Automatic annotation (TrEMBL):
Record has Cell membrane as a keyword: no
The UniProt record lists the keyword Nucleotide-binding: no
UniProt keyword list: Membrane, Transmembrane, Transmembrane helix
Protein name: ABC-2 type transport system permease protein
Superkingdom of source: Bacteria
TM annotation in the entry: 12-33, 53-74, 107-128, 134-158, 165-184, 214-233
Length: 238
């Protein structure tokens, strides 16, 4: 399992698309830290107000990462399983490890890549802003657990890498737009999907309303997505 995770890690690291993704996240962190310093200097007020500025910057960073997170993960890893199936390289891999180990290794490798990325971004934001925003690592880690599990399921539901790329882009763009529309529309179905299926509402509410129990919702969906992906992989004749 771990050599599969290491392989997926290096596959992501050496991609030119990945470099662009990392640079954009780091630039967003640096830009937010600069804005935070300017806001803090302009306010020249008590610590409570400065704390509010720091929390606002962290929430803005969460909004930005959540908004582009699906798109980034889907665009880089949409073919994480169907690529191997189409090339038939998965047959060789499955002679050495089980299907569960293969799926777990791919999940772990992709998740650890994103976990390192967001940790570096939060460290950069902390260093340049002078405040500790590392508490944001928990909702971000849960978000990427959810997203990576959804990517595994997508790659198994759609056999052709080209088609999974197209669908992944649609989902990556459509998911945050759907969440915004559901937030302002008084529609019970949209509200249920927004609050209990997509990860945005429970994670942001967990941060802003100090309700960490809501983190349980996207974690459950991550487990469900992974379990469905495992069932699909078991049913496939590879």
């Amino acid at each position: 399992m771990f050599w599969v995770a290491r392989y997926e890690w290096f596959q992501l690291i050496k991609s030119f698309k990945t470099i662009g993704v990392i640079v954009s996240l780091l630039l967003m962190s640096y830009g937010l830290s600069s804005l935070q310093n300017l806001a803090s200097e302009a306010m020249m007020t008590e610590d409570l107000a400065l704390t509010d500025v720091n929390e606002t910057v962290m929430i803005v960073f969460l909004f930005g990462t959540f908004g582009i997170g699906f798109l980034y993960v889907f665009s880089l890893s949409h073919d994480i399983i169907n690529r191997d199936i189409s090339l038939q390289s998965i047959r060789f891999t499955l002679t050495k490890i089980s299907r569960l180990s293969l799926l777990s290794g791919k999940f772990l490798g992709v998740f650890m890549f994103w976990f390192v990325c967001i940790t570096l971004c939060l460290l950069l934001l902390t260093i340049f802003s002078g405040t500790n925003v590392l508490s944001g690592i928990i909702p971000l880690a849960i978000f990427f657990l959810y997203t990576v599990a959804a990517t595994l399921l997508l790659s198994l539901c759609i056999p052709k890498p080209g088609m999974s790329m197209f669908v992944g882009l649609l989902l990556g763009i459509g998911a945050p737009i759907f969440a915004i529309v559901a937030q302002f529309r008084d529609d019970p179905i949209l509200t249920i999907i927004h609050q209990y299926v997509l990860p945005y509402y429970p994670l942001l509410e967990g941060v802003t309303m100090q309700s960490p129990e809501l983190y349980f919702i996207p974690l459950v969906w991550a487990v469900v997505f992974f379990a469905l992906a495992f069932l699909l992989l078991n049913r496939k004749d590879v």
